[in-house]
Design goal:
Blueprint: H1 11-22, E1 27-30, E2 33-36, E3 46-53, E4 70-76, H2 82-92, E5 98-103, H3 106-121, E6 126-131, H4 152-164, H5 169-181, E7 183-191, E8 209-212, E9 223-226, H6 230-242, E10 255-262, H7 268-284, E11 288-289, E12 293-295, E13 304-312, H8 315-321, E14 325-326, E15 331-332, H9 360-392, H10 399-419, H11 424-439, H12 441-458, H13 466-484, H14 494-509, H15 514-531, H16 555-580
Parallel strand pairs: 3-4, 3-5, 5-6, 10-11, 10-12
Antiparallel strand pairs: 1-2, 2-4, 7-8, 7-13, 8-9, 10-13, 14-15
Helix pairs in contact: 2-3, 3-12, 4-5, 4-8, 6-7, 9-10, 9-11, 9-16, 10-11, 11-12, 12-13, 13-14, 14-15, 14-16, 15-16
């Protein structure tokens, strides 16, 4: 388990601070992550990678000459926010555009896509590559749904070398796709990992058994078998990957980069024993192993497990793989040291958002928004562990801590905005941006979007009323379903949001007060959250482990129902106070 930490919610920020302090030769910190601390060649493509923290040396350990120009660093196991990615990309841009590289997870896709759109609107050529190397996470016919695991390294390395060599953006993007198409990975685990502050691992494996096909965030495996010998494990990994040779490649005589990756607790000596047999099996199949990598390259805290990656080379890919690189965690060849960037660490202080004029009624509404957010924070704080436990049944277990970080940031931001005279819309905008930025992950993006949509409906002029709130909730539901592509029945927070929206709207149309309408709709939300226990997840990280989640409600649906009920409590208290006055 993870033993050394202070406050669990602060772990990622403190980890980044320590990493940057100890690796100042390579990186400097900016708001959202790190970038190279050395000058890059002007007029070249910049590679910005990223994802959740907890996988070192991915992703920050791969920033340096010959590899990534920057890394956006999210909370533990949660994608960085669009704002974080944007900040890193802006700082890393060399004037020829930015290629974003990340693992194919729902939250990463949402946030990196948002950042890409924003950069493009500003005239920066921005493209993306979502790595899809994990053969266990979806069938070959649905390869675009596969997640990225240790194969991230092969794609990032050759893309970075191409950028360093002056490839155009079009050529770099084509190379990224080719490298991804030629990378396959498969992994196993003996124990799950435990997040800082948690008392239990995200998943467990029975004594003497091994989970097959697990993910790097602690997603459970797709099968369990008895723990094999080292040679038998090697045979399992190699045989599985040789059933998926990329199209157009003849196995006999092919050249591959094998990567035997440790996930956190398997010792290097054990990996070497396994690799001994891997090498024999590759040779027996007629393959030539090029520059084997054995060690920890994409980890998962203290997870005991390993994965094997095969990167199928062509002449250009091999040349770029072997190109020099100098980063904190991956070095090869001789790199001519570049000059250090002048100046100190930049961009760590958030820019204060201006507060537009608002009416007295709207400023009073902003106070009520703050009360609602504080109620949301209280209920999330009280249920953080339980939300994480529910999420870990078939997901990665980060929902509780992500919600905790997000709602805490939203309350702090809204409190400051109200103090400075913000109206209801402005308070919600600022709170939504803070929630999305600090929470990261899919839920962070969606809650940030929801608060903004409600803010659009309330505005900064009129006193918020039941009709405006109902309209805002309807707009929030529409925006979330359009952006996240989830629909009722997919086992997501949408399964709560849609019936809540419908009940709230019908009650308001019937002439009920906001407090009455919200109370009735809260009951609907709670029933809908409970009902998700009977659904199979069709979206996100839980999808590959759908059956495991039967009987357990969706964590995002539960947290939404809890917050809805908590807000109703504040509405009742506010109504009671007005009546007494």
């Amino acid at each position: 388990m993870t033993r050394l930490f202070n406050e669990p919610a602060a772990f990622a920020d403190e980890m980044i601070e320590g990493f940057v302090t100890s690796h100042a030769r390579w990186v400097r910190r900016i708001s959202g992550g790190v970038v190279r601390n050395t000058k890059s060649t002007p007029g070249t493509v910049a590679l910005v990678i990223g994802g959740g923290s907890g996988h070192y040396p991915a992703f920050a350990g791969l920033v340096g000459q010959g590899l990534a120009h920057g890394a956006a660093m999210g909370n533990l196991f949660a994608s960085p926010s669009a704002q974080q990615i944007y900040n890193v990309a802006k700082a890393a841009d060399n004037g020829c555009g930015v290629l974003l590289g990340y693992g194919n997870y729902a939250g990463d896709v949402l946030h990196f896509s948002q950042a890409q759109d924003r950069l493009r609107r500003e005239g920066i050529d921005c493209r993306s590559i979502a790595v899809t190397d994990d053969v266990s996470s979806a069938p070959l016919a649905e390869r675009t749904k596969r997640r990225g695991i240790a194969g991230d390294l092969t794609v990032f390395k050759v893309v970075a070398a191409a950028a360093e060599a002056g490839y155009s953006m079009d050529a770099t993007e084509e190379l990224a796709g080719r490298a991804n198409d030629r990378t396959r990975s498969f992994g196993v685990a003996f124990t799950g990992c435990t997040l800082p502050g948690a008392n239990h691992p995200l998943f467990t494996v029975p004594e003497g058994r091994m989970a097959v096909g697990m993910g790097i965030h602690g997603e459970p495996g797709i099968d369990e078998i008895d723990i094999p010998t080292a040679d038998e494990l090697a045979e399992l990994l190699v045989s599985k990957l040789l059933t998926e040779v990329p199209s157009g490649i003849t196995v006999t005589g092919a050249r591959v980069v094998p990567i035997l990756n440790g996930l956190g607790s398997v010792k290097y000596e054990e990996l070497f024993v396994v690799y001994r047999r891997v090498a024999q099996l590759l040779a027996d199949a007629g393959l030539e192993a090029v520059d084997p990598q054995v060690g920890e390259l994409v980890t998962s805290f203290d997870m005991a497990g390993t994965s094997l990656t095969l990167f199928w080379l062509d002449d250009e890919l091999e040349m770029l793989w072997n190109a020099p690189a100098d980063t904190p965690a991956f070095r090869r060849g001789a790199v001519t040291a570049a000059a250090l960037e002048p100046g100190e660490t930049a961009g760590l202080t958030d820019v204060e958002v201006s507060i537009p004029e608002a009416s007295t009624d709207s400023r009073a509404g902003a106070v009520q928004v703050l009360h609602a957010l504080r109620a949301a924070k209280a209920v999330v704080d009280a249920n953080t562990d339980e939300l994480g436990r529910i999420d870990a049944i078939a997901g990665d277990g980060d929902h509780g801590i992500g919600m905790e970080r997000g709602v805490r940031a939203a309350v702090e931001a809204a409190s400051d905005a109200v103090t400075r005279g913000a109206g209801a819309a402005t308070a919600l905008y600022i709170a939504g941006d803070a929630w999305a930025d600090k929470a990261g992950g899919t839920s962070g993006a969606l809650w940030g979007m929801a608060l903004r949509a409600i803010g659009d409906a309330l505005g900064n002029i009129y006193k918020p009323d039941a009709n405006a709130v109902a309209t805002g909730v309807a707009q929030a539901a529409a925006a979330i379903m359009e952006f996240g592509k989830a629909k009722p029945g997919d086992k997501t927070l949408v399964d709560v949001l849609v019936p809540f929206r419908d009940t709230l709207t019908s009650e308001v149309v019937a002439g009920r007060s906001l407090t009455e309408a919200w109370g009735t709709a809260a009951v609907t939300a709670e029933e809908a959250a409970d009902a998700t226990a009977n659904l199979l997840p069709l979206m996100g990280r839980a999808r590959p482990h759908a059956e495991k989640s039967l009987g357990t409600p969706d964590a995002g649906a539960v947290s939404m129902a809890l917050i809805i009920r908590a807000i109703h409590t504040t509405l009742v208290e506010n109504t009671t106070m007005k009546e007494k006055a």
